[in-house]
Structures are given as C-alpha cells and as structure tokens.
Specification:
flagellum; cytoplasm; 25% strand; 6-stranded antiparallel beta sheet; calcium ion binding; repeat; alpha+beta; alpha-tubulin binding
Length: 641
C-alpha cells in the first residue's frame, strides 16, 4: 500500500503518513468508445484518486502548440492546411493485383489420366478488397472455362475473416471454398505494390502444366523396332505345354448376375489365351464351351485416333503396346480380359511347377471362393388376431397365396358321421340361465364342438343353434401352442369353457359309452370308469325291465288283450304321449320295473289314461304283481304304435 505525504509537510523520512480516506489505487482508463468507435483520452485522475492538473489541454490546443515555432527570429508561423481526404474507391480505382497460380483436380473415371492441372489467374481489387479467379480458355479442353470464382470478398477461415492483400505472396497455398490454389508468380505492378508496403516477396516458382495436355501435343511414335525373339524356338520348346488357371467371374453387380466359373488356358507355344466356361448340371445355360476363343489378348493400347474404324477393322500390332504374357497371371489376383474381370483362385500342378522354375514363385496357395451360407433368419409369426381358425390364419404367414391347411383324411373317413352327444347346463350367476338345457355335440371326424339349445315353449328364450361347429381351445391355451378339447376331456361332471361361457356335463348318450368301450386305448381309465358308473343304474333298470318282461303272463293272451285295447283307443281317437315311457322310468327310482298302485294311478291321471274303463282294468289286473305293485313295462306296450 503506497503512502502519500500530508499537505504542507516536507517530504522527509518520518514525515510521510498514509491517508485512510483513499481506497482506490488503480490506474485510470485511457481508452473509450463513442458511437461504436474506440478513441484515446487523457487521464483526469491519478493513482489513489488524486485530481490531475497537468496536460489538461484539448487535442486541438495540443496540436496548435506542437505546430508553433520560436517567434524571435521568423515571427508567428502559419498552420499548414490539412490534406484533402481521398476515399479508397478513388485512390485505388482500377488498381488490381494479379497473381498466377494453379490447382490440381482428380480424374477418377479415366484410364488415361489420374489428375488434371488447371491454371488460373487470381485478381485482387484494392478499391474494395474483393477477389476473383479466372481460368484461361484452353482449346478443345472439354471443360467450361473462364470465370471460375466471381468477384467477391472471399472468406479466409470459419471466424468470419476475409482474404487481404497482406495474405497473398508467391510460393504459398490458399484455400478458397474447399479448393487449394498454389500461387507461383505475380505481375510487375503487384510486386512493386507489395514491396512498397513492406512485404518481402518469396522467389517465383515454375508454372506446372497439365501432363495429359502436354502428352497430346507430342508427335506419335511412327516406327516399330524389329523383335529379335525367335518364335520358332518358342514353338518347338513349348509345344503342347499349356498353363491352366481356374478363375471366377463375379457378375453379381448387374441385374440377374451370378458367380460363374471359367478355365483360362495360356498356350506357351504362341502366347495365346483361351477362356472356357465350366458348365454345371441343370445350370440353365446353353452348352457353349468357349467364352473367348484362342487368340492373343491385348493388355495396353496405343492412343487411338478419333477416325479409327474400330467397328470394322480388327486390332493389329500397330494398335497394341503390350500383350498378355505368362507373368500377368497369378493365383489370388484379378485379370481383366476383354472387359471382363476374372479372379484366379487356383491352378494345376504343371502351372505351379512352371512358375517355380521360370520365375521362382512357389507360394501359389489356392483361394477359398465358397461363400459362407447366409444366416438363417428366424421367421417371426405375428400374434393371432382372432379371425377364422388359427391354422387357417397361420397359412397367410407362410406363402403369398395361402393354401388351405392339410386335413387328416384317414381320420375323417374312419369317423365319418360319428358324433358324441352330451347333455350340459350353463353355470351362471343368473338364475334364469341355470335352468336352460343344452346339447353338446363333439364331431370325431373334425374335432369340432357344436352346442344346441332345445326350444322350450313359453320360456322367453329363443332356442336353436347356440354355437356352430368350431374347435374350442382349453383354458390357459396360447396361440403359439394351442390345446383343444378332446373326447377324453368330456366326462360326467366336468366343466367345459367355451369362449367365456362355462358348461357342466350332466348326462351323455349311450353311444358315448359304447364308443369308449370300443376305444379303450384312447381314453384314460378314470374317464371310462366314471362313465360306466353313470350308466350302471340305467343298465340295471333296463335289465330288470327285460326280466319282468320275460315273466309276463301268457304272451298270446296278453297280445290279444293289447290288440283289443289299441283298437279301443283308435275308436275313441286317443293319442298316447311320446314322453309317457320316460316319465314311468323316472318314477321307477330303483329301476325294478315295478310301481305301486298310488304312483301308477297318479301317472295315469297325468296322461289322461281311462283306467276306469273295464278293458283297461283287465289289462291292469293282468300286469299286477302282488297286491300293491304293477308291472308297468307290460302296461306301456299297449301305447306303442
């Protein structure tokens, strides 16, 4: 912390004190901004906040004092008038800096040139710092030339800077819009201007010309050096000696292309090449064995004239610079023959020995061209949408034109018209639904279930078909692995869930038990035993009825009496009820075939049988068993038409 002397005291050791009121000791700012422009100003406050009273003159007063001269000898000098302001567009009008340069351009689709050199002129306009790039027109170049980059301020970098004449020099590279230009020289005015501004110019470089353009200017070689090769010696030494290469032509890039195998023969006797196609069984191609006939194949051509009739004349030695020889073929490399690229993957034993003796090459390892099998893509089956049968809807995922699912014809023929019928009732919280009775039919030929509701008069429910023929899946079955109801699942007391509705089997047809007895291997023992237990009382009752029928009185007397009763009922237009026999069987709880007289009389009154008629009294006496029982099967025979 600097100290300041107290005002009025001499600046002596011990008489300096620090002023506690001073808190700022920084230097005042001498730069300022006005209307967006920076300018320099004189400080008015010193270190510590002290007011400065020196150099408080204005800039005009300082300029006037600087221009004054001593007046003792020459008197008061006169101030020179300021020079006139000349704007840049007037001072540098028509003053242009010109640089010579070039840039290199790649040529990827030409076999005669790999890159191209294009010469340009770079112009810098001093009046507005704009630049333009002009390319001189070259005759028959085939390239639109002239103005390459129009006049504008060219960006120098990504920060928004632009090229200035201070950035230009000889022997440097500049990048404009992604293209790199090499500046090699400039004109005399440009050199004089840059040197006057204190810029040291690099030495000029030699302009590079396009090699392809220069090659076209060279005269064609018109002479042919005679060959000293002895063709007769070659023929005698290598007669019937042929190099054999196994190659493949990959044409999969074109439409309907494929990999085709070929054999390349190189005849050492005359340096000719033959290409033969390898045909496979049932490949669908015509049996043309030779793809390229035996001939000398050109490798490098001379430059052809535009008027050379290639479609009329054959290729001669004057149009070919180099022919294919044995050194151009190698295992593991590609060779282009008449526009087709063949990949050589193997050769025979004679070819390997020839290359080892002639060229010292022994690493002719065959290349495996077998493609790995494509990765098997697992077919994803979409979820079942609930429309139609599952097997039928699944066929849409296997082919564009769905085919109907295959049926077990043998099973359909063996089980034709075989149907298992069950009496079921609906399990529901609604008491009206619990009183409804249904008949469930299981078709053994197609494993389909149908449900029919017998119509009941004045029940308020329309009977008829409740469920059409369909395969019913079990509860918990998934669409990926569906499990359907089978005959083994249908037994007395079991519950069948049909699309959200539950049914309980309470009875079955006699055919169900007979079918189970004849196909015991298809049903569990528990199911067969439960069905037998259900039908046991009914069978015992029927046996008892048959036994009572066998103990009846004289059949002739009974038959005559029954004939009289039936004739009597026809005279009085009495029609028996079809449910009469079922009612008597239900009343016979133990199935003995006997009913007491009270039960018998009640049933006769229910069906309006005139038991007081003498002829019916005679029949009742004939069917009596003991004092209080009646054999009702013999009595019911009178009502069977």
């Amino acid at each position: 912390m600097s100290s300041q002397p107290v005002q009025g005291l001499p600046l002596l050791p011990g008489s300096t004190f620090r002023d506690p009121t001073k808190t700022t000791f920084h230097r005042s700012q001498t730069l300022g901004y006005k209307n967006g422009f920076a300018f320099k100003k004189l400080p008015t406050v010193g270190i510590g906040g002290n007011r400065l009273y020196v150099n408080q003159l204005s800039q005009a007063e300082l300029d006037e004092l600087s221009n004054k001269r001593p007046t003792l000898t020459y008197g008061e000098p006169k101030q020179a008038p300021p020079s006139d302001f000349i704007p840049a567009h007037v001072a540098f009008d028509k003053k242009v800096l010109k640089f010579d340069g070039y840039f290199q351009e790649d040529v990827p689709i030409s076999t005669e040139e790999h890159f191209r050199i294009r010469q340009v002129g770079i112009y810098y306009y001093l009046e507005d710092d704009s630049m333009s790039v002009m390319e001189p027109i070259v005759e028959n170049s085939g390239i639109p030339q002239g103005k390459f980059i129009k006049r504008q301020r060219l960006p120098k970098n990504d920060r928004g800077d632009h090229y200035h004449w201070k950035d230009l020099n000889r022997g440097i590279n500049i990048t404009i819009y992604g293209k790199t230009f090499r500046i090699v020289d400039c004109d005399r005015f440009t050199q004089t201007f840059l040197e006057s501004q204190g810029i040291e110019l690099n030495p000029p470089e030699r302009m590079i010309f396009d090699p392809y353009t220069e090659l076209r200017k060279m005269p064609l070689r018109m002479y042919v050096t005679p060959s000293d090769f002895d063709q007769l010696k070659q023929f005698l030494a290598f007669d019937k000696k042929v190099l054999r290469f196994y190659a493949i032509w990959d044409d999969t890039g074109n439409m309907f292309g494929e990999n085709r195998r070929f054999i390349i023969h190189y005849y050492l006797a005359d340096d000719t090449v033959e290409v033969r196609e390898v045909h496979e069984r049932n490949d669908g191609r015509d049996p043309f064995p030779v793809l390229i006939r035996r001939q000398r194949l050109p490798k490098t051509f001379v430059e052809k004239k535009e008027n050379f009739p290639t479609c009329v004349l054959e290729i001669s030695d004057q149009e070919v610079l180099e022919w294919f020889t044995a050194k151009d073929f190698a295992v593991g490399k590609s060779t282009t023959l008449l526009g087709r690229t063949f990949f050589i993957y193997d050769c025979d034993e004679f070819t390997r020995q020839f290359y080892q003796d002639k060229f010292g090459i022994a690493n002719f390892q065959p290349v495996d061209i077998k493609k790995p099998p494509p990765e098997e893509i697992k077919q994803i089956i979409p979820p079942y949408n609930g429309y139609g049968f599952l097997e039928d809807s699944l066929q849409n995922c296997f082919s564009l034109i769905p085919q109907p699912p295959r049926k077990n014809v043998i099973k359909m023929l063996e089980n034709d018209h075989k149907i298992l019928r069950y009496a079921v009732r609906m399990e529901s919280s609604n008491p009206d639904d619990t009183k409804r009775h249904f008949v469930l039919s299981y078709c053994l030929a197609t494993d389909m279930i149908s449900i029919y509701e017998p119509p009941v008069r004045n029940s308020g429910i329309i009977g008829g078909k409740y469920l059409g023929k369909t395969r019913v899946p079990k509860p918990g079955s998934s669409t990926d692995d569906p499990v359907y109801y089978e005959p083994a699942d249908l037994t007395i007391g079991s519950m069948v869930e049909v699309f959200g509705h539950r049914f309980i089997i309470v009875d079955a047809d006699n055919y169900v038990l007979n079918y189970m007895e004849s196909n015991l291997e298809s049903f569990p023992a528990s199911v067969v035993q439960s069905m037998r237990a259900h039908f046991a009382p009914r069978q015992a009752a029927m046996e008892a009825v048959r036994g009572l029928a066998s103990n009846e009185p004289d059949p002739q007397e009974l038959a005559a009496l029954l004939e009289q009763i039936q004739e009597h009922m026809r005279r009085h237009n009495y029609l028996p009820d079809s449910s009469m026999q079922e009612a008597f069987l239900q009343q016979d709880k133990d199935g003995s075939g006997l009913l007491n007289k009270a039960e018998f009389s009640a049933l006769c009154d229910h069906f309006k049988i005139p038991i007081d008629d003498p002829i019916f009294q005679k029949l009742i006496n004939t069917c009596s068993h003991g004092e209080n029982q009646i054999r009702y099967p013999a009595f019911l025979r009178a009502f069977q038409c």
